[in-house]
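TA notes, week 10

Several of you asked for a full example with nothing omitted. So below is the full record: C-alpha coordinates for the whole chain, then the designed sequence directly under it. When grading your own attempts, check the secondary structure regions first.
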Protein backbone atom coordinates (compact mmCIF):
# COMPACT_ATOMS: atom_id res chain seq x y z
CA UNK A 1 0.00 0.00 0.00
CA UNK A 2 1.35 3.40 -0.99
CA UNK A 3 2.02 5.98 1.70
CA UNK A 4 2.62 9.74 1.60
CA UNK A 5 5.60 10.15 3.92
CA UNK A 6 5.27 13.95 4.00
CA UNK A 7 2.01 13.60 5.93
CA UNK A 8 3.33 11.32 8.70
CA UNK A 9 2.37 12.74 12.07
CA UNK A 10 1.29 16.04 10.55
CA UNK A 11 -1.86 17.83 9.50
CA UNK A 12 -4.04 16.45 6.71
CA UNK A 13 -6.91 18.50 5.28
CA UNK A 14 -9.56 16.62 3.32
CA UNK A 15 -11.42 18.94 0.96
CA UNK A 16 -10.12 21.79 -1.17
CA UNK A 17 -13.20 24.02 -1.18
CA UNK A 18 -13.68 27.26 0.71
CA UNK A 19 -13.17 25.88 4.23
CA UNK A 20 -10.25 23.58 3.44
CA UNK A 21 -8.46 26.20 1.36
CA UNK A 22 -8.92 28.88 4.04
CA UNK A 23 -7.46 26.51 6.62
CA UNK A 24 -4.50 25.71 4.36
CA UNK A 25 -3.88 29.39 3.63
CA UNK A 26 -3.86 30.29 7.33
CA UNK A 27 -1.47 27.43 8.08
CA UNK A 28 0.80 28.41 5.21
CA UNK A 29 0.84 32.08 6.23
CA UNK A 30 1.97 31.08 9.72
CA UNK A 31 4.73 28.80 8.43
CA UNK A 32 2.80 25.58 8.98
CA UNK A 33 2.73 22.45 6.87
CA UNK A 34 -0.12 20.21 5.76
CA UNK A 35 -1.32 17.86 3.06
CA UNK A 36 -4.46 19.03 1.23
CA UNK A 37 -6.47 16.26 -0.45
CA UNK A 38 -9.17 16.89 -3.06
CA UNK A 39 -10.60 14.73 -5.83
CA UNK A 40 -11.57 17.55 -8.18
CA UNK A 41 -9.13 18.45 -10.95
CA UNK A 42 -10.23 22.09 -10.84
CA UNK A 43 -11.69 23.11 -7.46
CA UNK A 44 -13.35 26.50 -7.85
CA UNK A 45 -15.44 28.88 -5.79
CA UNK A 46 -19.06 27.80 -6.25
CA UNK A 47 -20.94 31.04 -5.41
CA UNK A 48 -19.59 33.07 -8.37
CA UNK A 49 -19.81 29.98 -10.58
CA UNK A 50 -23.53 29.49 -9.95
CA UNK A 51 -24.28 33.19 -10.37
CA UNK A 52 -22.63 33.40 -13.79
CA UNK A 53 -23.99 30.24 -15.44
CA UNK A 54 -25.56 32.14 -18.31
CA UNK A 55 -23.43 35.27 -18.37
CA UNK A 56 -21.17 36.07 -21.32
CA UNK A 57 -18.21 34.72 -19.35
CA UNK A 58 -18.25 32.04 -16.67
CA UNK A 59 -16.88 33.50 -13.43
CA UNK A 60 -14.35 30.77 -12.68
CA UNK A 61 -12.24 31.45 -9.58
CA UNK A 62 -10.03 28.44 -8.84
CA UNK A 63 -9.05 27.84 -5.24
CA UNK A 64 -5.27 28.29 -4.85
CA UNK A 65 -3.23 25.11 -4.68
CA UNK A 66 0.39 26.30 -4.71
CA UNK A 67 0.87 27.42 -1.12
CA UNK A 68 4.19 27.32 0.76
CA UNK A 69 4.27 24.33 3.08
CA UNK A 70 1.11 22.78 1.61
CA UNK A 71 1.33 19.53 -0.37
CA UNK A 72 -1.65 19.27 -2.75
CA UNK A 73 -2.67 15.66 -3.31
CA UNK A 74 -5.29 14.63 -5.89
CA UNK A 75 -7.36 11.67 -4.81
CA UNK A 76 -10.77 10.36 -3.84
CA UNK A 77 -11.13 9.58 -0.14
CA UNK A 78 -12.62 6.16 0.40
CA UNK A 79 -12.67 6.10 4.20
CA UNK A 80 -11.17 7.65 7.31
CA UNK A 81 -9.30 5.48 9.82
CA UNK A 82 -8.10 6.39 13.31
CA UNK A 83 -4.63 7.24 12.01
CA UNK A 84 -4.81 7.59 8.22
CA UNK A 85 -6.89 8.76 5.28
CA UNK A 86 -7.43 5.94 2.78
CA UNK A 87 -7.77 6.87 -0.90
CA UNK A 88 -9.51 4.92 -3.64
CA UNK A 89 -6.19 4.12 -5.37
CA UNK A 90 -4.91 2.33 -2.26
CA UNK A 91 -2.82 5.19 -0.89
CA UNK A 92 -2.89 5.65 2.89
CA UNK A 93 -2.08 9.16 4.12
CA UNK A 94 -1.17 9.10 7.84
CA UNK A 95 -2.10 12.05 10.02
CA UNK A 96 -1.51 13.42 13.47
CA UNK A 97 -4.28 15.99 13.09
CA UNK A 98 -7.14 15.63 10.62
CA UNK A 99 -9.35 18.40 9.23
CA UNK A 100 -12.48 17.34 7.34
CA UNK A 101 -13.67 20.11 5.01
CA UNK A 102 -15.56 17.99 2.51
CA UNK A 103 -18.50 20.34 2.04
CA UNK A 104 -21.75 19.27 0.42
CA UNK A 105 -22.63 17.29 -2.69
CA UNK A 106 -25.75 17.94 -4.79
CA UNK A 107 -28.66 15.63 -4.26
CA UNK A 108 -29.45 13.71 -7.44
CA UNK A 109 -32.42 14.61 -9.60
CA UNK A 110 -35.56 12.45 -9.34
CA UNK A 111 -35.37 9.28 -11.47
CA UNK A 112 -37.67 10.76 -14.12
CA UNK A 113 -35.16 13.58 -14.66
CA UNK A 114 -32.04 11.44 -14.57
CA UNK A 115 -30.51 13.42 -17.45
CA UNK A 116 -30.86 16.77 -15.70
CA UNK A 117 -27.74 18.85 -15.22
CA UNK A 118 -26.29 19.37 -11.75
CA UNK A 119 -23.98 22.28 -10.99
CA UNK A 120 -21.32 20.98 -8.63
CA UNK A 121 -18.07 22.11 -10.25
CA UNK A 122 -16.58 23.98 -13.20
CA UNK A 123 -16.90 21.03 -15.59
CA UNK A 124 -20.62 20.67 -14.85
CA UNK A 125 -21.17 24.40 -15.35
CA UNK A 126 -19.45 24.31 -18.73
CA UNK A 127 -21.58 21.35 -19.79
CA UNK A 128 -24.80 23.21 -19.01
CA UNK A 129 -23.63 26.39 -20.77
CA UNK A 130 -22.79 24.42 -23.91
CA UNK A 131 -26.40 23.28 -24.31
CA UNK A 132 -28.26 26.31 -22.97
CA UNK A 133 -27.98 29.18 -25.51
CA UNK A 134 -31.40 30.21 -26.81
CA UNK A 135 -33.25 27.31 -25.24
CA UNK A 136 -36.14 26.85 -22.90
CA UNK A 137 -34.93 25.70 -19.51
CA UNK A 138 -36.66 23.80 -16.72
CA UNK A 139 -35.21 24.27 -13.26
CA UNK A 140 -36.19 21.89 -10.49
CA UNK A 141 -35.62 23.42 -7.07
CA UNK A 142 -36.58 26.21 -4.70
CA UNK A 143 -33.31 27.37 -3.20
CA UNK A 144 -30.71 30.02 -3.88
CA UNK A 145 -28.99 28.11 -6.69
CA UNK A 146 -32.29 27.53 -8.51
CA UNK A 147 -33.21 31.21 -8.39
CA UNK A 148 -29.71 32.42 -9.29
CA UNK A 149 -29.77 30.18 -12.35
CA UNK A 150 -33.32 31.16 -13.28
CA UNK A 151 -32.72 34.89 -13.13
CA UNK A 152 -29.41 34.54 -14.96
CA UNK A 153 -31.15 32.55 -17.68
CA UNK A 154 -33.95 35.11 -18.04
CA UNK A 155 -31.49 37.99 -18.23
CA UNK A 156 -29.57 36.08 -20.94
CA UNK A 157 -32.67 35.67 -23.11
CA UNK A 158 -33.61 32.11 -22.20
CA UNK A 159 -37.08 31.08 -21.05
CA UNK A 160 -36.69 29.57 -17.56
CA UNK A 161 -39.44 27.82 -15.61
CA UNK A 162 -38.78 27.07 -11.94
CA UNK A 163 -40.57 23.95 -10.74
CA UNK A 164 -40.88 24.61 -7.03
CA UNK A 165 -40.50 21.93 -4.38
CA UNK A 166 -43.06 23.64 -2.16
CA UNK A 167 -45.46 26.55 -2.01
CA UNK A 168 -42.76 29.24 -2.19
CA UNK A 169 -39.13 29.56 -3.29
CA UNK A 170 -36.40 30.00 -0.69
CA UNK A 171 -38.12 27.89 2.00
CA UNK A 172 -35.45 28.85 4.55
CA UNK A 173 -36.51 32.50 4.43
CA UNK A 174 -39.49 34.24 5.99
CA UNK A 175 -42.57 33.98 3.73
CA UNK A 176 -42.70 37.77 3.28
CA UNK A 177 -39.15 37.76 1.90
CA UNK A 178 -39.71 34.67 -0.25
CA UNK A 179 -42.86 36.11 -1.84
CA UNK A 180 -41.12 39.38 -2.62
CA UNK A 181 -38.20 37.61 -4.31
CA UNK A 182 -40.56 35.39 -6.31
CA UNK A 183 -42.58 38.35 -7.54
CA UNK A 184 -39.49 40.35 -8.51
CA UNK A 185 -38.25 37.47 -10.65
CA UNK A 186 -41.67 36.79 -12.15
CA UNK A 187 -41.84 40.40 -13.29
CA UNK A 188 -38.52 39.85 -15.12
CA UNK A 189 -39.73 36.80 -17.05
CA UNK A 190 -39.04 33.87 -14.72
CA UNK A 191 -41.94 31.44 -14.71
CA UNK A 192 -42.88 29.53 -11.57
CA UNK A 193 -44.67 26.19 -11.74
CA UNK A 194 -46.51 24.85 -8.68
CA UNK A 195 -45.11 21.90 -6.81
CA UNK A 196 -45.25 18.63 -8.72
CA UNK A 197 -43.56 15.58 -7.13
CA UNK A 198 -42.90 14.09 -10.58
CA UNK A 199 -42.46 16.80 -13.24
CA UNK A 200 -42.71 15.56 -16.82
CA UNK A 201 -39.30 15.32 -18.50
CA UNK A 202 -40.82 16.36 -21.83
CA UNK A 203 -41.97 19.69 -20.40
CA UNK A 204 -38.59 21.23 -21.25
CA UNK A 205 -35.78 20.28 -23.64
CA UNK A 206 -33.15 21.09 -21.02
CA UNK A 207 -33.28 20.61 -17.25
CA UNK A 208 -31.21 21.83 -14.32
CA UNK A 209 -31.77 20.10 -10.98
CA UNK A 210 -31.01 22.11 -7.86
CA UNK A 211 -32.81 20.07 -5.23
CA UNK A 212 -30.51 20.69 -2.31
CA UNK A 213 -27.32 19.12 -1.06
CA UNK A 214 -26.11 16.74 1.61
CA UNK A 215 -22.86 16.41 3.58
CA UNK A 216 -20.10 14.78 1.55
CA UNK A 217 -18.36 13.11 4.48
CA UNK A 218 -16.58 9.81 3.84
CA UNK A 219 -17.17 6.88 6.22
CA UNK A 220 -15.80 7.77 9.67
CA UNK A 221 -14.37 5.58 12.43
CA UNK A 222 -16.78 4.10 14.93
CA UNK A 223 -17.54 6.51 17.75
CA UNK A 224 -16.97 9.70 15.75
CA UNK A 225 -20.29 11.48 15.99
CA UNK A 226 -22.47 12.52 13.05
CA UNK A 227 -26.18 13.21 12.99
CA UNK A 228 -28.90 11.46 11.01
CA UNK A 229 -28.48 13.94 8.14
CA UNK A 230 -24.78 13.16 7.84
CA UNK A 231 -23.27 16.29 9.43
CA UNK A 232 -20.19 15.78 11.59
CA UNK A 233 -20.99 16.89 15.14
CA UNK A 234 -18.32 19.17 16.57
CA UNK A 235 -17.64 20.95 19.85
CA UNK A 236 -17.06 24.64 20.43
CA UNK A 237 -13.50 24.30 19.05
CA UNK A 238 -14.70 22.48 15.90
CA UNK A 239 -13.37 19.10 17.06
CA UNK A 240 -15.41 16.09 16.04
CA UNK A 241 -17.11 14.75 19.15
CA UNK A 242 -15.86 11.27 19.96
CA UNK A 243 -12.63 11.58 17.94
CA UNK A 244 -10.35 12.20 20.91
CA UNK A 245 -9.43 15.77 20.02
CA UNK A 246 -7.32 14.99 16.95
CA UNK A 247 -9.95 15.39 14.22
CA UNK A 248 -11.85 18.52 13.22
CA UNK A 249 -14.72 19.25 10.84
CA UNK A 250 -15.32 22.68 9.32
CA UNK A 251 -17.54 24.29 6.75
CA UNK A 252 -20.77 22.99 5.28
CA UNK A 253 -20.37 19.42 6.58
CA UNK A 254 -20.04 20.41 10.26
CA UNK A 255 -22.69 21.05 12.93
CA UNK A 256 -21.58 22.83 16.11
CA UNK A 257 -23.29 21.24 19.11
CA UNK A 258 -21.43 22.87 22.01
CA UNK A 259 -20.47 26.37 23.08
CA UNK A 260 -21.86 29.75 22.04
CA UNK A 261 -22.71 28.59 18.49
CA UNK A 262 -24.65 25.51 19.59
CA UNK A 263 -28.05 27.06 18.89
CA UNK A 264 -27.36 27.61 15.21
CA UNK A 265 -28.32 24.96 12.65
CA UNK A 266 -25.78 23.88 10.01
CA UNK A 267 -25.27 26.77 7.61
CA UNK A 268 -24.29 26.17 3.99
CA UNK A 269 -22.64 29.55 3.63
CA UNK A 270 -19.27 30.50 2.21
CA UNK A 271 -18.79 33.05 5.00
CA UNK A 272 -18.97 30.35 7.67
CA UNK A 273 -16.63 28.06 5.74
CA UNK A 274 -14.05 30.83 5.33
CA UNK A 275 -14.34 31.94 8.95
CA UNK A 276 -13.98 28.45 10.39
CA UNK A 277 -11.13 27.56 8.04
CA UNK A 278 -9.12 30.68 8.85
CA UNK A 279 -9.75 30.30 12.60
CA UNK A 280 -8.73 26.64 12.67
CA UNK A 281 -5.69 27.11 10.45
CA UNK A 282 -4.34 29.83 12.72
CA UNK A 283 -4.94 27.68 15.78
CA UNK A 284 -3.30 24.57 14.35
CA UNK A 285 -0.26 26.58 13.29
CA UNK A 286 0.48 27.35 16.96
CA UNK A 287 1.27 24.23 19.07
CA UNK A 288 0.53 26.22 22.23
CA UNK A 289 -3.10 26.43 21.14
CA UNK A 290 -3.68 22.75 20.66
CA UNK A 291 -2.15 22.24 17.21
CA UNK A 292 0.97 20.30 16.34
CA UNK A 293 1.50 16.57 16.15
CA UNK A 294 -0.08 15.42 19.40
CA UNK A 295 -3.84 14.94 19.84
CA UNK A 296 -5.41 17.63 21.97
CA UNK A 297 -7.70 17.10 24.96
CA UNK A 298 -11.47 16.83 24.63
CA UNK A 299 -11.69 20.40 25.93
CA UNK A 300 -8.91 23.02 26.21
CA UNK A 301 -7.12 22.88 29.51
CA UNK A 302 -6.61 25.78 31.86
CA UNK A 303 -3.30 26.64 30.22
CA UNK A 304 -4.68 26.87 26.68
CA UNK A 305 -7.01 29.85 27.10
CA UNK A 306 -8.40 29.27 23.61
CA UNK A 307 -11.61 31.10 22.82
CA UNK A 308 -14.19 29.02 21.00
CA UNK A 309 -14.95 29.77 17.37
CA UNK A 310 -17.73 32.34 17.11
CA UNK A 311 -18.99 34.31 14.14
CA UNK A 312 -22.37 35.48 12.92
CA UNK A 313 -23.46 33.17 10.09
CA UNK A 314 -24.42 35.11 7.01
CA UNK A 315 -25.15 34.43 3.38
CA UNK A 316 -25.42 36.41 0.16
CA UNK A 317 -27.18 35.59 -3.10
CA UNK A 318 -27.06 37.86 -6.14
CA UNK A 319 -29.96 36.93 -8.40
CA UNK A 320 -29.54 39.35 -11.26
CA UNK A 321 -30.33 42.78 -9.78
CA UNK A 322 -32.05 41.19 -6.78
CA UNK A 323 -29.70 41.16 -3.80
CA UNK A 324 -30.57 38.77 -0.97
CA UNK A 325 -28.65 38.68 2.32
CA UNK A 326 -29.25 36.71 5.51
CA UNK A 327 -27.58 37.04 8.90
CA UNK A 328 -27.93 35.24 12.21
CA UNK A 329 -30.64 32.73 13.01
CA UNK A 330 -32.86 31.52 10.15
CA UNK A 331 -36.57 32.29 10.13
CA UNK A 332 -37.37 28.74 11.23
CA UNK A 333 -35.51 29.33 14.52
CA UNK A 334 -37.15 32.70 15.26
CA UNK A 335 -40.62 33.89 16.12
CA UNK A 336 -42.75 33.78 12.94
CA UNK A 337 -43.95 37.37 13.39
CA UNK A 338 -41.15 39.31 11.68
CA UNK A 339 -40.87 43.08 11.72
CA UNK A 340 -40.77 44.35 8.13
CA UNK A 341 -38.72 47.49 7.50
CA UNK A 342 -38.69 49.24 4.14
CA UNK A 343 -40.42 47.80 1.07
CA UNK A 344 -39.54 44.20 0.25
CA UNK A 345 -41.76 44.28 -2.85
CA UNK A 346 -39.36 46.64 -4.63
CA UNK A 347 -36.25 44.82 -3.42
CA UNK A 348 -35.24 47.29 -0.70
CA UNK A 349 -36.23 46.19 2.77
CA UNK A 350 -35.61 43.87 5.69
CA UNK A 351 -37.42 41.16 7.60
CA UNK A 352 -36.12 41.47 11.17
CA UNK A 353 -36.39 38.24 13.17
CA UNK A 354 -36.82 38.17 16.95
CA UNK A 355 -36.56 35.48 19.60
CA UNK A 356 -40.17 35.84 20.76
CA UNK A 357 -43.34 37.92 20.41
CA UNK A 358 -42.80 40.37 23.28
CA UNK A 359 -41.71 43.97 22.83
CA UNK A 360 -38.50 43.24 24.77
CA UNK A 361 -37.57 40.28 22.53
CA UNK A 362 -34.07 40.70 21.05
CA UNK A 363 -33.05 40.54 17.40
CA UNK A 364 -31.72 37.09 16.42
CA UNK A 365 -31.67 37.28 12.63
CA UNK A 366 -32.24 39.50 9.61
CA UNK A 367 -33.09 39.03 5.95
CA UNK A 368 -32.21 41.93 3.67
CA UNK A 369 -33.15 42.77 0.09
CA UNK A 370 -31.16 45.52 -1.56
CA UNK A 371 -27.76 47.17 -1.11
CA UNK A 372 -25.34 45.77 1.52
CA UNK A 373 -25.28 48.57 4.16
CA UNK A 374 -28.48 47.47 5.92
CA UNK A 375 -27.22 43.87 5.96
CA UNK A 376 -23.87 45.02 7.33
CA UNK A 377 -25.68 46.86 10.12
CA UNK A 378 -27.62 43.71 10.98
CA UNK A 379 -24.40 41.69 11.20
CA UNK A 380 -22.86 44.29 13.50
CA UNK A 381 -25.87 44.26 15.85
CA UNK A 382 -26.00 40.45 15.89
CA UNK A 383 -22.26 40.20 16.51
CA UNK A 384 -22.58 42.39 19.61
CA UNK A 385 -25.27 40.07 20.92
CA UNK A 386 -23.23 36.95 20.16
CA UNK A 387 -20.23 38.40 21.96
CA UNK A 388 -22.31 38.94 25.07
CA UNK A 389 -22.86 42.62 24.47
CA UNK A 390 -25.90 42.78 26.73
CA UNK A 391 -23.84 41.59 29.66
CA UNK A 392 -21.26 44.28 28.91
CA UNK A 393 -23.87 47.01 29.19
CA UNK A 394 -24.38 47.38 25.44
CA UNK A 395 -27.95 47.84 24.24
CA UNK A 396 -29.62 45.11 22.20
CA UNK A 397 -32.21 45.81 19.53
CA UNK A 398 -35.69 44.81 20.66
CA UNK A 399 -38.89 44.18 18.77
CA UNK A 400 -40.52 47.22 20.32
CA UNK A 401 -37.82 49.54 19.00
CA UNK A 402 -37.78 47.99 15.52
CA UNK A 403 -41.57 48.24 15.22
CA UNK A 404 -41.57 52.03 15.62
CA UNK A 405 -42.54 53.98 12.53
CA UNK A 406 -39.57 55.08 10.46
CA UNK A 407 -37.10 52.70 12.15
CA UNK A 408 -33.76 52.40 10.31
CA UNK A 409 -31.40 49.63 11.39
CA UNK A 410 -28.34 51.44 10.04
CA UNK A 411 -29.06 54.49 12.16
CA UNK A 412 -29.71 52.34 15.22
CA UNK A 413 -26.44 50.44 14.75
CA UNK A 414 -24.46 53.67 14.40
CA UNK A 415 -26.08 55.16 17.51
CA UNK A 416 -25.33 52.06 19.60
CA UNK A 417 -21.86 51.23 18.32
CA UNK A 418 -19.89 49.94 21.32
Amino acid sequence: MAESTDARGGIVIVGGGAAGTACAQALSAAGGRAVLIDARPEPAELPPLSKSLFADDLDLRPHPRELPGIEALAGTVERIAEDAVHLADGTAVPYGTLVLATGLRPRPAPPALRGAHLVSDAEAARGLRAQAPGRELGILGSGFLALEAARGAADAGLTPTVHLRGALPLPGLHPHTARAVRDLHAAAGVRFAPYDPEPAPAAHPLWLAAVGAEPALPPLPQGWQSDVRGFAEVDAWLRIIGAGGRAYAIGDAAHVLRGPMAGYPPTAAESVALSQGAWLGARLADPRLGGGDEPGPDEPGAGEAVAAWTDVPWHWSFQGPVRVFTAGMPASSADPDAVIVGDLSVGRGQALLFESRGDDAELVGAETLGPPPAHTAARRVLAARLEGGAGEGRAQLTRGEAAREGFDLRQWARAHRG
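Residues 111-209 form a domain with the FAD/NAD(P)-binding domain fold (CATH 3.50.50.60). Use that as a sanity check on your answer.
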